[in-house]
Write a structure and sequence with these properties.
Protein name: Peptidase A2 domain-containing protein
GO molecular function, one term: aspartic-type endopeptidase activity
Strand order of the largest sheet: 2-3-9-4-8-7
Radius of gyration: 31 Å
CATH topology of one domain: Cathepsin D, subunit A, domain 1
Number of strands: 11
Helix content: 40-55%
Order of helices and strands: HHHHHHHHHHEEEEHEEEEEHEE
Keywords: Coiled coil, Hydrolase
Length: 359
């Protein structure tokens, strides 16, 4: 078995480790091993032979030394430390790929450190490199002892989270199919024509509300800003209006956007659904689509006027359901306001007598 050629692009420590194994398999002595290493150099690495005298070119230790001075980790440790500090998980990067990259960078950044120390450093940098704040928190709470244990746990948590998200979407789709089937059955009875007419009127009304929230230009949107909200960290099992806030302060429902909790003010007097600029700013920009500018003014119940910052498509999670909706962004005191466009588009009802918010 012959060794692969080396021209300086690959990790030198990894190449030499494999070279030593091949030398042992082939039974090379010191002199033969030295000649094979010199003969395996290519490109810039081969040019280093000119820096050695005739005898040193045939000496394995001399060859390793000149290669290490040029391509080794010791001379680039500061560069590797800077890369390690700023390393973040890529959008399409898997957790095993991230873990392998972190371990390699840690070894290159601290070439002379003991393995016990580099193991602890690799574990900390692996957790810090995760974009998902909830995943980082769960890993730290689990207190893994090694980067391998953290990687295994992270893969399991991410898989469970993805499964729950898919389950929520499937439940939503199943409910939608059942609702459509029930409605279509009713269209076949003696009052089918009247129901068809009613359905068309509702569809037209929905389109008007969506158009109003997305496409109106220059016309002020009047919303009633009333009360205040406080989004807690505990996620309820059912969607209910918070009884402690269901008074003259307003009616609120808890929700999530990009795994961040907030409390929406349910305002049937608002034409559109709004998110506060402060809430949007607290979300990692890489997790959100671009905010598109709009030419719309906000008029509050107090008569104050201010322009909307823009509009953005988001996924609003209410209980087990995820709703895709286009919302406006404005500098408001509430974290968010659910308006009539959301209620109509997603067939939601506000049951004041039962203190519930249902779809």
């Amino acid at each position: 078995m012959k060794p692969q050629l080396y021209e300086g692009d690959e990790d030198l420590d990894e190449y030499l480790a494999q070279f030593e194994i091949l030398a042992e398999i082939n039974g090379w002595n010191y002199a033969t091993k030295s000649l094979y290493l010199a003969g395996s150099l290519k490109g810039g690495a081969r040019a280093l032979l000119n820096e050695l005298d005739k005898e040193s070119r045939k000496d394995y230790n001399s060859l390793v030394k000149v290669l290490d001075n040029r391509y080794g980790s010791a001379e680039k440790s500061e560069l590797f430390r800077a890369k390690l500090q700023t390393r973040m998980r890529g959008k399409e990067e898997s957790l095993p790929e991230l873990a392998q990259s972190i371990k390699k960078l840690t070894r290159q950044a601290y070439p002379s450190a003991q393995s016990t120390i580099t193991s602890v450093l690799a574990l900390e940098h692996f957790i810090d490199a995760l974009q998902d704040a909830d995943l980082r928190l769960r890993l730290r709470e689990s207190n893994p002892k090694s980067i391998h244990e953290a990687e295994t746990l992270a893969v399991r948590l991410e898989t469970l989270k993805l499964a729950e998200r898919q389950k929520g979407r499937m439940v939503r789709q199943a409910d939608s199919v059942q609702t459509d089937a029930k409605f279509n059955t009713e269209l076949n009875d003696d009052k089918g024509e009247d129901l068809k007419s009613l359905k068309n009127e509702l569809s037209d009304f929905k389109r008007e509300m969506i158009s109003l929230s997305r496409n109106i230009k220059g016309k002020p949107v009047e919303v009633g800003l009333r009360g205040r909200s406080q989004a807690g960290t505990e996620w309820p099992k059912s969607i209910k209006i918070n009884e402690s806030l269901a008074n003259n302060e307003g009616l609120f429902v808890r929700a999530k956007i990009n795994d961040k909790c907030l409390a929406f003010l349910v305002d049937t007097g608002a034409n559109v659904t709004i998110l506060s600029k402060k809430f949007i700013d607290e979300i990692n920009p890489s997790l959100l689509p671009k905010i598109n500018p709009v030419n719309i003014n906000l008029i509050t119940a107090t008569g104050d006027s201010a322009p909307f910052i823009g509009q953005i498509d988001v996924e609003i999670c209410l209980g087990n359901y995820i709703y895709h909706h286009n919302v406006l962004v404005a500098d408001i005191s509430n974290e968010g306001i659910i308006g009539m466009d959301f209620l109509v588009t997603h067939d939601c009802d506000v049951l004041l007598s039962q203190n519930k918010f249902e779809d």
